[in-house]
Amino acid sequence: MGKIISAIARDGACACKCIDSTDIVYRAEQIHQTSAVVTAALGRLLTAASLMGVSFKGDNDSLTLRLSGGGPSGSVIAVSDSRGNVRGYPENPVVEIPLNSYGKLDVAGAVGRKGSLYVMKDTGTKEPYIGHTPIVSGEIAEDITHYYAMSEQIPTVCALGVLVDTDLTVISAGGFIVQLLPGAPDETIDRLEKTINALPSVTSLLKDGAAPEQLAALVLEGFEPEIVGEFPVEYRCSCTRGRVERALLSMGRNELKKLARQQRTTEVDCHFCPKEYRFNREEILALAK
Ligand code: ZN
In angstroms, what is the span from residue 172 Cα to ligand 1's centroid? Predict the structure, then answer.
């Protein structure tokens, strides 16, 4: 089980959310059989979605991140429910490219830098909120920071990391989002950046056994942080047969009839989890009615 800790500075200048998403990203790799660089890309996006979705108010609210950068991984999608439980998938799970110039998995190379980060918030209003900002780095954390600066005018520092083993399983994954709160003194962001730039990477802290509480203490060092929330989070798919039926209905009557003529059984795979739904000819025809 993963965990998010939310903490706030004693003076109310800034707040952070920190996550250990190792179990989430481990599960994502097992489901999608991603190559190392795609595990890192999908894992970072899932980690960000969980951090961004956990604070939603309504039980049925959800947040979707779609990163479409024109790279070989295709679009990468991550969806969070209002409790920070996430699911996601890459269009192309296997990308083999050389390490980047720092000797690290080349997430930006896999995702691509020509495109946008889309943020969709469904909070039960008639039209969901959709914001998008151009991709600035393709490494994802900077793209999230840029999104908050441009679309929501919230000064933000974000870090995301996924460490993949040589056997392609996930060793550690996690991240944090720190944001200024209204009325924060001007020097707050400089102080935060100074502290955060001096920290080891999130993945190495987690690998060495740091819990999200300790991440929060390190990230907000000097701000006397107080922990105000703790949320268990996991990889969780919300697919049901009813939802698949609704997706089939959206194909329209003629397409469904064609489908029933063409095949005895129609199989629909969930994009997010290993579940497979089967419909026989009669069931498809019943939907067509
Ligand atoms: Zn599913």
Answer: 24
For each of the domains in the chain, give its residue range(s) and CATH number, in order of start.
Answer: 2-233 (3.55.30.10), 241-288 (3.90.1280.10)
Who contacts 165 (Cβ-Cβ below 8 Å, separation ≥6)? 171
As averages over each run of 10 residues, the pLDDT of the chain (289 residues) reads: 96 96 98 98 98 90 97 98 97 97 95 97 90 96 96 94 96 96 90 93 93 96 96 96 92 91 92 95 91
CB 132 within 8 A of CB 116: yes
Q: How far is the CA of 30 from the centre of ligand 1 (A)?
A: 14
The number of residues making up the chain comes to: 289
What's the pLDDT at 57?
86
Around ion ligand 1, which residues have CB less than 5 A away? Answer: 237, 239, 270, 272-273, 275
CA of 38 to the centre of ligand 1 (A): 20
- Give the distance (Å) from ligand 1 centre to CA of residue 37: 23
Supply the pLDDT for residue 210. 94
Contact indicator for 71, 109 with CB cutoff of 8 Å: yes
Burial class, 103, CB count within 10 angstroms (exposed 0-12 / middle 13-18 / buried 19+) = exposed
Q: Considering the entire predicted model, what is its pTM?
A: 0.94
The answer to whether 64 touches 87, Cβ cutoff 8 Å, is: no
**Ligand 1 centre from 87 Cα, in Å?**
8
SS3 165: coil
Name, in order, each residue with C-beta under 8 angstroms of 259's C-beta and a sequence gap of 6 or more.
251, 266, 284
**How far is ligand 1, taken at its centre, from the CA of residue 269, in Å?**
8
CA distances to 104, 111, 148, 149, 186 from 131, rounded to whole Å, are: 30, 19, 10, 12, 27
* pLDDT value, residue 42: 98
